[in-house]
Every structure is written in C-alpha cells, then in structure tokens.
Design a protein that fits this description.
four-stranded antiparallel beta sheet, single chain, mainly beta, 59% strand
Length: 119
Amino acid sequence: QAQLVESGGGLVQPGGSLTLACAASGSFGSFNTMGWYRQAPGKQRELVATISSGGVKNYADFVKGRFTISRNNAGSTVDLQMNSLEPDDTAVYYCNLRYNSIWGPENFWGQGTQVIVSL
C-alpha cells in the first residue's frame, strides 16, 4: 500500500515558476512510473509528465520544455519544476504512482495541490 502527498502549489503570476513535490511512502513495486497529472475546472484529468524507475521521462506537448520532472531519494519522491507558467496551467495537480503487482496494475493518487496562474 502506497501513499502520496503533494506540496508546493500556490498562486503565481504568468511567467513565474513553481516547484511541486510528491513524497511516496509505504510499499510499492520497484519497477514503477511516477508522474504528475492535472485537472482544470470542467476538464478531464490530463497527463503532465511522468518518469519511470529507470529514469525515462515523458512530457505532454503543452509543456514545451517549460517543465522538468525528476526523482530523488531512491525513487520515493518526484518533483516537477515548472517554469514560464501560463494561465492555462491553472489546475489541481495530482501525483501518481503506477506499477504492476501480482494482483495486477496498481494506481495511486495523491490528494492534489492547487496551482493558480493569474495576475
């Protein structure tokens, strides 16, 4: 059983920067993927960036080189460095952990952290 806790959200002006952090605790598979998803009001949750336990990174097209995802502490934490933030980046950002267990695919979510990009 894994637990994810996000932090680092807040209010930032367009063009500003913000770093989100996610700490994973409990037990989870060594081969996994952690990442960030976001959900804006009235919209579906969408992938922002992921990073596997092997260090393979994937980014959504809208990131356009502005965001950087990284893992630390033996893969138990994942950060999202967000630069050049735009109003369209406003959303609740959720940390995600996925891996395969003997029972099948596992999927864990954090509680979410709010990011508001506005003047």
